[in-house]
Automatic annotation (TrEMBL):
It comes from Hyalangium minutum. This is Putative restriction endonuclease domain-containing protein. Gene3D superfamilies: tt1808, chain A (3.90.1570.10). SUPFAM superfamilies: Restriction endonuclease-like. InterPro entries: Nuclease_put_TT1808, Restrct_endonuc-II-like, Uma2. It comes from the Bacteria. Residues 20-188 form the Putative restriction endonuclease domain.
Length: 193
């Protein structure tokens, strides 16, 4: 079988959906609420299944943030964020203000911190989701790579550029203090213990 040429590929371009259309597909039952999909840049994308290391890291992060943050913030594990007219990702973890969660029309439209736990989804999390979160102005984004046992920290979203302007990678005995949540310190080794 030969590869598609540019004309053939353009004739077969996927249909992109708006956030309103995506919600309508859920409302009328075309998409079921328990389907593991999310809307990214207009495309309905299957979410990667979770293995044990992935689930364990999400559980540990959820416990860490929930204990440390108290009532002023809401820790949202694997719940939607309505970030733009064409994107509603379901990050592994998002920290939002209590006010944002309680007053959002559908789902929160912003977050202070978003975390994606990655294994097979590393490229999507770095590139596509990183672009979605940067464009939405999320101030801090973490990609937790369970395979390399590292955390990539992205800050300074360049909304116009669709990318974060600053990044660093932490591992081993290092600690991570989220810039948007002063006073918190995460020991990276404990996350992967």
């Amino acid at each position: 079988m030969r590869p598609l040429d540019a004309l053939e590929a353009s004739l077969m371009a996927p249909r992109r959906f708006t956030l309103d259309e995506y919600h309508q597909l859920l409302h009328v039952g075309v998409l079921k609420e328990d389907e593991h999909v999310e809307l990214l840049e207009g495309l309905i994308v299957d979410m990667t299944p979770q293995g044990r290391p992935h689930a364990l890291v999400i559980s540990r992060l959820n416990r860490f943030f929930s204990r440390a943050l108290g009532e002023a913030y809401s820790v949202r594990p694997q719940l939607p964020l309505s970030l733009s007219p064409d994107s509603e990702p379901e990050p592994d973890l998002a920290v939002v203000t209590r006010e944002e969660e309680e007053h959002a029309e559908d789902h929160p439209r912003t977050a202070l911190l978003v975390v994606e736990v990655s294994g097979d989804s590393l490229r999507v999390d770095r590139l596509i989701k990183g672009r979605v979160y940067a464009r939405a102005g999320i101030p801090e984004y973490w990609v937790v790579d369970v395979n390399s046992r590292t955390i990539e920290v992205y800050t300074a979203p360049g909304a116009g550029e669709g990318r974060y302007l600053s990044s660093r990678t932490l591992s081993g005995d290092e600690t991570l203090a989220p810039s948007v949540l002063p006073g918190l310190v995460l020991h990276i080794a404990e996350l992967f213990a």
